[in-house]
Amino acid sequence: MTPxxxxxxxLQCGMNLTSVPDSSNDGNGGGVVEVTERADFPVNRGALCGxxxxxxxxxxxxxxxxxxxxxxDGALRPAxxxxxxxxxxxxxxxxxxxHGPDACGVFGGGGLTNEKAYxxxxxxxxxxxxxxxxxxxxxxxSSAAAGGIRAFGLDRGLPFPLEDIPKTGCVILVGSNLAExxxxxxxxLTELRDNGGKLIVIDPRRTRTAEQADLHLAPRPGTDLALxxxxxxxxxxxxxxxxxYIQERTSGWEEARAAAMAHWPEYVERITxxxxxxxxxxxxxxxxxxxxxxxxxxxxxxxxxxxxxxxAWINLCLATGRPGRPNSGYGCLTxxxxxxxxxxxxxKADQLPGYRKxxxxxxxxxxxxxxxxxxxSLPGPGRSAYELLDAMGxxxxxxxxxxxxxxxxAPRAAHIEERLRSLDFLAVAxxxxxxxxxxxxxxxxxxQWAEETGTTTNLEGRxxxxxxxxxxxxxxxxxxxxxxxxxxRLGVEKGFPTDPEEVFEELRRASAGGPADYSGITYxxxxxxxxxFWPCPAAPTTTTTGTGTGPLKSAATEEAPHTVVPDATAxxxxxxxxxxxxxxxxxxxxxxxxxxxFATPDGRARFxxxxxxxxxxxxxxxxxxxxxxxxxxxxxQSGAQTRRVDELNAAAPGPFVELHPRLAERLGxxxxxxxxxxxxxxxxxxxxxxxxxxxxDTVFMPFHWPGEGRANTLTNPALDPISRMPEFKTCAVRxxxxx
Length: 739
Ligand SMILES: Nc1nc2c(c(=O)[nH]1)N[C@H]1C(S)=C(S)[C@@H](COP(=O)(O)OP(=O)(O)OC[C@H]3O[C@@H](n4cnc5c(=O)[nH]c(N)nc54)[C@H](O)[C@@H]3O)O[C@H]1N2
Ligand SMILES: Nc1nc2c(c(=O)[nH]1)N[C@H]1C(S)=C(S)[C@@H](COP(=O)(O)OP(=O)(O)OC[C@H]3O[C@@H](n4cnc5c(=O)[nH]c(N)nc54)[C@H](O)[C@@H]3O)O[C@H]1N2
Ligand code: SF4
Ligand SMILES: [Mo]
Fold this sequence. Notes:
By secondary structure, the chain is of the alpha/beta class. It folds into 4 domains: 2-59, N-terminal domain of TfIIb (Single Sheet); 69-139 and 338-449 and 476-499, Rossmann fold; 158-332, Dimethylsulfoxide Reductase, domain 2 (3-Layer(aba) Sandwich), CATH 3.40.228; 625-737, Beta Barrel (Barwin-like endoglucanases), CATH 2.40.40.20. It has 22 helices and 30 strands. The strands form 8 sheets. A 7-stranded mixed β-sheet has the order 5-4-18-17-16-6-7, with helices on one face. It has a 6-stranded mixed β-sheet with strand order 24-26-25-30-23-27. It has a 5-stranded parallel β-sheet with strand order 10-9-8-12-13. A hairpin with a 4-residue loop joins strand 19 and strand 20 (462-466). The longest helix has 19 residues, at 81-99. The radius of gyration is 24 Å and the shape is globular. It binds ligand MGD (2 copies), iron/sulfur cluster and molybdenum atom (MO). One ligand MGD binds at residues 109-112, 136, 139-140, 298, 302, 335-336, 402-405, 408-409, 429-432, 434, 446, 448, 479, 629-630, 637-638, 640-641, 703, 711-712, 715, 728.
């Protein structure tokens, strides 16, 4: 029996895997495992959703890739590993010679372990010398990350463990459908209410999560910014601000206050559709308790104003004295399995490991020394995910893609699919033949969760050890092996180990002294403890000022100037011996951030003066309806994995469009009838699902399917100016009967 963690979402539920005899007898090697309860892991205490429970189905050879594939005469054909790797090395080096290093793009994923994400970032900068690397996390929590850094100087999704939720007085949950996207976490909200705490859910749909709420507000999609400003207006008008906290722990209040005061409740009601009494009731519930939290997810974040929207919710928390107080504050519910760690160690366009910035000379020196290269050889920041994909076929001629399926998940997907086809060379490493892998020149079949060891960092900032339970089938190799072999073929023999623990040891040194400091974390510790929260420096430092708060380092925003943080201790110098468990003092990790100070240069949280603005595309006569998109419980993301699991397909067999009976009546549409949804980007067709749980001016589509029902054929790639997040959650459409 092997204790490990789920391959899917950011909750990273603990589970045990037990080997059972392989009944398929396909002679392909590999093993089969069964999932059993692992009650000792505190986050899920044994509970799993259907995706986690059925995850082993993907280990069987019937649904996965088992051999490398190379395109010849238009079709993908089986090849040896040497042929496939040679072909990729050739494609990349030819592109580099003909068009320069920046013509090679790299695209990663938040499902990759820390070791893989770290190695991918290093591979791009050291082996390819390209600045053109980004990843699908840009489509996920990047607005919350940018908002968190702007306000607090640091981005860790939740600055407190989930176990604090039941202890707070009130939670405002903004645009999260937790009951479907992280089912075992619903328990924390149930316990909150059992303890007498209040739950307010803000979602244009009355979701399974909203059904649990004491108060459900259903704003028009894309208006959360105005909503938060209206609430802050009322907080001020009703004299509910925490003046002492504002004075002691924040800066920028006057400007933020003035901006909020321009958002009168009646004006906000007109924009959002949320009534003034509902706004007042929200303020009352949020303010009349000693502790309170705001948690956001993709609803308010996947907007072309996502960063400012997050800023407005943080302003509300700061004005009422919440962040850094017990069981209180602002948090973002990160999404992918390693959505948190995947954004810390260098696969992001502007970033170096440890959440350092590529344009910071001290950070470049530190990481270059760990990597054994000249700091001047490191490229600068590159393009964001959508911009990188959009540049394929023009500036980007070859792409190496690992752990994402943009043909289904990118905004304006038909255009992105066409851009992928226009590449000179595309290589994809995946577990299955995804819709994106189908377009590749070379496909590499890689190992997955149960077949390899690695660390992930869950939505709480808790670093975890995902242990190998079985050996992969013959013919399968790991992502680390792929990068090792490609590096060697491109002339870099050293620095790309295939052993995950060896990579982690280097990651510790590279992250030492950075905002996301992992230097005090070892595999041994992770095996003994139920995870360790970063920052966790190699040894306790004297700058720690209070219980639970580590020596916080600032991560500069795209716009704020970067603070150069000199390495404080000898142990933080690259190459220095790092202590392991048992070797003297050990830093306990940092479950709770900001208790004494924020990670800004002056230790104060920064208010940001923000104002409401419309979505990039508002409804008009031609496209009169709002489309929003999201998830269902039984499918995961682009569906590449979960559409291959029978039990999940039976529960969620295909796309649909959710609409209100009033809209259906206007169209003359009936339940189950195919509807055409048309936007300025394209047309999709999906059966009608008529329900009173959605606003009459809005339709909803899940984005898990390719083909005719692909929601992303419709979505708008308008980007947030700071986070570069596309507007997945709002665009204007026309709905018609398809027949
Ligand atoms: N079953 C399942 N679970 C998953 C995933 C999955 O694909 N499937 N993916 C994982 C990942 S990577 C992520 S990022 C998380 C996402 O987790 P969530 O953020 O919970 O998921 P979504 O369904 O994208 O969006 C949440 C809600 O936002 C609402 N919404 C839409 N527009 C707006 C708006 O303008 N304002 C507000 N306030 N709400 C709005 C939608 O109606 C939806 O109910 O889930 C993770 N867990
Ligand atoms: N319309 C709309 N679009 C959205 C969203 C939305 O709410 N609405 N949400 C966005 C969000 S939040 C996200 S996170 C993205 C996600 O969208 P994608 O990036 O497409 O995510 P996945 O479907 O998880 O793709 C992961 C791929 O990697 C493979 N894989 C899994 N593990 C490994 C591994 O260890 N190594 C390798 N090499 N491959 C692996 C899987 O088989 C799969 O093919 O979608 C975004 N797109
Ligand atoms: S909630 Fe997330 S981590 Fe937990 S079992 Fe489901 S998919 Fe896996
Ligand atoms: Mo995500």
